[in-house]
Amino acid sequence: MKIRKAVFPVAGLGTRFLPATKAMAKEMLPVVDKPIIQYAVEEAFAAGIEYIIFVTGRGKKALEDHFDRSFELEVALKNKKKEELLRQVKDLVPKTGTIIYTRQNEPLGLGHAIWCARDIVGDEPFAVLLADDLIQSETPVLSQMVDKFDRLRASIVAVMEVADDQTDKYGILDADAIEEDVVRIKNMIEKPEPEKAPSNLAIIGRYILTPKIFDILGRIEAGAGNEIQLTDAMKQLLTNQPIFGYKFQGNRFDCGDKAGFQMANMAFAMERPEMKEKLTEFIKTMHLNIDK
Ligand code: G1P
Question: Which atom of ligand 1 is nearest to the CA of 202?
Answer without folding.
Answer: 10
